[in-house]
Amino acid sequence: MLDSLELEEIRRVTSAAAESVIDLHGSLNKNEIDLAAITAMRKALIDMHVHGTVIIGEGQKDSAPMFMHGEKVGNLKGLEVDIAVDPIDGTTLVAKGKPGAVSVIAFSPKNTMFNPEDNFYMLKLVTGYEAADKISLARPLLENLHVIAEAKSKKLQELVVAILRRPRHEKLALELQALGIRVRFFDDGDVTAAIATCLPDSHVDAMIGIGGSPEAVISAAGIIALGGSIHCQIFSKRDIELFTIDPLQPLDRPILTKYDLIHSNNVLISITGVSENELVKGVEVHDGRMVSDTLIIGRLAKGPLLLHI
After folding, report:
1. What's the pLDDT tens digit per position in 11-60?
2. CA torsion 286→289→290→292, rounded to 10°?
3. 284-303 per-position pLDDT tens digit
């Protein structure tokens, strides 16, 4: 069980990556940012008492420096676990000096994480515990939003939906806004956006849209821990085109749930702020010392975990 993992060791992994890029904010050099964060995270993992196998190592789709799938990390003496990493979720945000970036690592028991391989994109629908067992991408998106509104005792027009700011989502956003639904755009970093929908007293009711498959697996750890739900479908370029034309209608594609992405209730995820975002503060310097802010979310044998350190 993941209860044996040291939370301070986990925190050090993501805080090391976040702090490593503090001088690169606004540098416009994405690869340098990725390399610095990956190097720092890898160095921190060497000292962690765990026998980890990297299942998700962001970077494949844009040829950036990365952790390799199957790479062994940790001191290889501790608990055997699957690991999903994104040293910087929101590299473009850091490169442009914008808020919203985080460093993330997720853990689950050995052989429980889904590997999307070369399938880089998924349509995702995420919401919190209230409607967790009621949504389905087999139904039209608008029907799902009615279900979420009813589960949360809200009117449809009171819903807030997070959408990644991309041309492929323009028609979706316009159609939701025409119905009076409030759309909250984010520029990058859909791990943060997905998990935010599941937090207690969240101001965002759902996240909808096409984003990265690796981020879906990482997000699943936090979603499982918080009792929320993610439904997703692997999308080809043709699927993306069809969605862009008619975003409210379902496509007949296999549906993956949170337990397809991670088939375990035993999960841990550490999120450290790189720049300011709705979950954690960005790295700051006080009296010459770097200070980072980390949120650790988990579901362990002893119960749920939501720790801000």
Report:
1. 999 999 999 999 999 999 999 999 999 999 999 999 999 999 999 986 55
2. -70
3. 988 889 999 999 999 998 88
